[in-house]
Give the backbone structure.
Amino acid sequence: MTDMPVSSFPRTERTTVHRLPKRATYDRAAVEAILDEGLVAHIGFAGTDGTPVVLPTAYARLGDKVIVHGSSVGHFMTTLAEGVPLCLTVTLLDGLVLARSAFHHSMNYRSVTVFGTARVIEGHEAKLEALRGLTERLTPGRWDQLRPVTVKEVAITTVLELPLTEAVAKFRAGPPVDDAEDMGWPVFAGVVPLKLTAGEPVPDPTPAA
């Protein structure tokens, strides 16, 4: 009998939200939905000299893990591969909230924060499967259309998995919340929706060999 993922993440010292806690949720389905919609994560960690570093990267949630990849000789991946504690965040911006005062301006958003330590995926086949999952997540159906990945390409790529064991989602939705005495102020108040959309594909101008 296999262990089924719990329906919510435990509240830990790192994931407990103290500022506006009503906006937080530890529900696994909510966390996974945000991760599945996002395309770019920011990973924060301490560099080799202790300097805080935050870098953006593509990612994919595959089951109960988040997959990231990069050059096997790059500082980013080599540091993470050493097992340093990290923080991964994903944010979806849904709208600008325009209030009747500058103080109450806000944003509608959905975000996820994951804490943990990444593990190196070892072995050609395991790495290849993770890279396939990442590619299919970003561009569904494309992997089988591409020139097959070479053994060398897999070898020089570090693929990491971050277990989803310590995570929290936070969100804001809805109209502005103004002070009662400001409700009659003659300025637009409401939400300007924002959405990431794909444009018309632009073909590569370089002619085929």
User: Anything to note?
Assistant: Residues 124-138 form the longest helix (15 residues). Residues 21-172 form a domain with the Pnp Oxidase; Chain A fold (CATH 2.30.110.10). The helical segments are 28-37, 75-81, 124-138, 151-155. The radius of gyration is 21 Å.
